[in-house]
Amino acid sequence: MDLHARRADSFGAQAEAYAEHRPDYPVAAIRWALEPLGTDERLDVLDLAAGTGKLTAGLSAEGHRVTAVEPNEQMLSELVRRVHGVRALPGHAEHIPVPDQTVDAVFVGTAFHWFDQEKALPEIARVLRPGGVLAVMWVEPVTDVEWVRDLERMSATSVESERHDPVSIMAHPSFAPEERTTFPHSHHRDSPEAAIAWINTHSRMIVIDEQERAAINDKMLTYLRERPETSNGPFDVPLLAEVFRTVRVSE
Ligand SMILES: C[S@@+](CC[C@H](N)C(=O)[O-])C[C@H]1O[C@@H](n2cnc3c(N)ncnc32)[C@H](O)[C@@H]1O
């Protein structure tokens, strides 16, 4: 298995910690993504690469009928354990286990960069009703805040962060040109240790060897225990949700 595939499949090893420590998504991002559908009604929504259900829970709380699709068994088990009232299915973006034209929107949270997009985009187009929406989003730390930038720099590992530019990737004849916006968000952490537990759920941390991980964690912990913003009790990590939406057009 190459490194990309190994990383795409790495999250299950940290499934419980992932569910515990990763941030959720701003509700404003979900609402903005669904605007092109022009309705307040309950929609059929697919959360693709749903992980432990961070975005699934937000979609469900908005009142939509949600199907969550996730290939990793441990991640899917956490989702089933934690998010109730949704349909949860094993499956990949390149072969989505739902029939043609049965969903109003497909959401992808912090996972589009793991897909084989040449295969995934026609699959997403297949399951969407005409006029349906594809929404792709990431939630990332705001690195113009000094301590957050320092932490990001310290958490770099011997494997690079992976993320593609969806503006070019989403160009596909089944989809209208995408629109992009951002929403401020934050991640509440009770302690420096909790911030480090969150960082350790990223694939670049999961796939490195124990020695490298321990050295990085030591460095981050020392830093957070010294910084005035983070040393005394709970703090919020400033995040930005970056959201892309595009509409399924008839060919
Ligand atoms: C960073 S996690 C994001 C999970 C969830 N959407 C969230 O926001 O918390 C990436 C997820 O993508 C899944 N994944 C990786 N490759 C995939 C593929 N080809 N098709 C569908 N899901 C995939 C992984 O198993 C993992 O659960």
CATH architecture label name: 3-Layer(aba) Sandwich
CATH class: Alpha Beta
Whole-number total of structural domains: 1
Small molecules in complex:
S-adenosylmethionine
Tell me the number of strands.
7
Q: Taking Cα atoms only, what radius of gyration do you get, to the nearest Å?
A: 18 Å
CATH superfamily: Vaccinia Virus protein VP39
Task: Give me the secondary-structure category.
Answer: alpha/beta
Shape: globular
Report the uncertain regions: none
CATH topology: Rossmann fold
What would your notes on this structure say?
Residues 46-135 form the Methyltransferase type domain. This is Methyltransferase domain-containing protein. It comes from Lentzea jiangxiensis. The protein has a seven-stranded mixed sheet. It is globular. It has a single domain (3-141, 161-188, 238-247), classed as Vaccinia Virus protein VP39 (Rossmann fold, 3-Layer(aba) Sandwich), CATH 3.40.50.150. It starts with a helix and ends with a strand. α5 (73-82) links the parallel β2 (65-70) and β3 (87-90). The longest helix has 17 residues, at 210-226. α2 crosses α9. The protein contains twelve helices and seven strands. 38% of the residues lie in helices and 24% in strands. With 251 residues, it is an alpha/beta fold. The mean pLDDT is 93.
